[in-house]
Prior knowledge:
Elements: H1 2-24, E1 30-34, E2 38-45, H2 57-78, H3 83-106, E3 109-117, E4 120-121, H4 127-165
Antiparallel strand pairs: 1-2, 2-3, 3-4
Helix pairs in contact: 1-3, 2-3, 3-4
Amino acid sequence: MLALIIGIVVLVLDQITKQAVRAAFCHGDSRPVIDGFFNLVFVRNDGAAWNILSGHGIILVLISSVVLVLVLIYRRSFLTDSLLHRIILGVLIGGIAGNLIDRIRFGWVTDFLDFEFGSYHYPSFNVADSAICIAVGLYMISTFIAHRKEKKGLEVGEKEAEMERRGGSVESPDE
C-alpha cells in the first residue's frame, strides 16, 4: 500500500509541475533561477534520456509500458518487503507512469529543470526523470550494502565453522 501511495504522490507532483510549466511558459522559454547555474525551461522531449530514440514515441510508449508491467509483476524477485524497497518501488512506478502519461497524451515529455555547470549544459529533465534516477540509485546502493552485509555474514560464518573444526579456538594468522 505504501508503494502505491508514494507512486501516486510522485505521479501527481510530476503532472502538476509539468502542467504549471506548460501554462506559464511558451515552448522554448527559459527563465534563470540562479543565473549561470539553474534555469526553468519548457522543452518538449520526444526522446528518452539525452533525447535517445527521438522521434520514436511509440517505441518509448511500448518500452515504458512493458517496463512498468514487468516491475510490478516481478518486484518480489528483486525487491524485499523492507520500508526502503517499498519506497523505491513507489518512486520508480510514479516516475515511469508520469513520463508515460506525457508520451501518450502529447507524444513528448515536458522537461523543465535545466542546469549548467561551467561550460557544460546538462540536458533538461523533470520530476519523473528525477524519481526514476533516485529509485534506481537507491536500489543500487541498497543492493550493494545488502551484498556487503551478506558477504560479511558469510565470513563470520566461515570463521565460526573454522573455530568448531579446530575444536573451539581460532588461531590468528600471526601465531
